[in-house]
Amino acid sequence: MKVKQREIAKYHKLQVQVEQEPSQDIINHLKNTVIGTPGRLLYRLTGIEKKIKSLGTCYFLVLRKLSRLIGTMGFVRRTTYSKENSYSSWYMRYFSIRAPLRTKIHKKEDYENKLSSGDNIIKDSIKDYFYEPNRLLGKMSDPNQKTYIYAYIERGNIRSKIFSDQMDFQTVRSFTTILFSRVNPKIHPGVQRIKEEGKTDMLKLLRGFYRGFNMYTEQYLFYENNYYLLKLNNEIVSAVQANQEIWEIKKIPGFKGKILLDIMPRIPGVTKIFDPQNFRFAAIEGIYYKEGYESYLIPLFESICALTKTHFALIWLDTDSPLLKTIDKLGYHGLFSKFVKRVEVDIIIKFINFSEAEKESFRNNPAYLSCFDMT
Prior knowledge:
The protein has 375 residues and is an alpha+beta fold. The protein is 25% helix and 34% strand.
């Protein structure tokens, strides 16, 4: 794979580069990265190499010491929609620093006391890319262009929170995760994979459904043709994108987590349903339902589990969105949902050339979450 890169800063043995295509050491670094905040859910992603190739336009800020990779930060360029407006925006992911640079930090003062001159130079060298992300493209942009960078930070991740504050990110919303499970999932009548000729009409339905949301993106809808419909009398009453994913779960906090990780896998037959070392699930986004037919989401979710040959589905939703409230009212999410406590994750945005009124719209309206960004 040809690697396009350029150096943007250097301090003694430390070097910061922009890479347009991920080198093998970036891929290997991300394969070995454990996601999550200590004391909460910790897991490792699988399928990194395949997923990176499907991201679209993605640039990496890479930190190396004596040519050895010690940190990455990825920026994915995409078009997002907020009501009647569309934006060329950037989603920040793959923020990972290799030990021993990752220190145990619990207070802001502790972090500031540990900053070296090298740290400050690195931060100063990348700061311009947060104020003008189109620099990643190797060109200057219109100084008046509206754009934004967004990311997700678990509450309690002090290091990431301090870094985001330094780069002038603002917390606008939060989201949580729904775990849906069925021990013996069945395919319900009327469930089918979308056909090519139906995708244009489906996008029209989705644009209307998410008209009141911010950060709506269609980039990963129909990925690998994994969009499913439930039809009633030949009319779409519910629909979802569902990707097959695998995580390696390292830790689930609390007593219930201990039951899931340490006790249940020892029970004969349980690992056929739940194997923490090979946790298979369907990742869901692009949810749609016709008004008055909300109840058809549950049979669709169950059918997705059956079609993807798993027992679980994960859904990421804005904590104050009508969609989350609707799904919560629909009923039983499954036995395993009782074992995992929902946590809130902050949605943060670095606004560029937005008025205060425009920023307020992002605070007051729900955000769209793509499952592609979580897996």
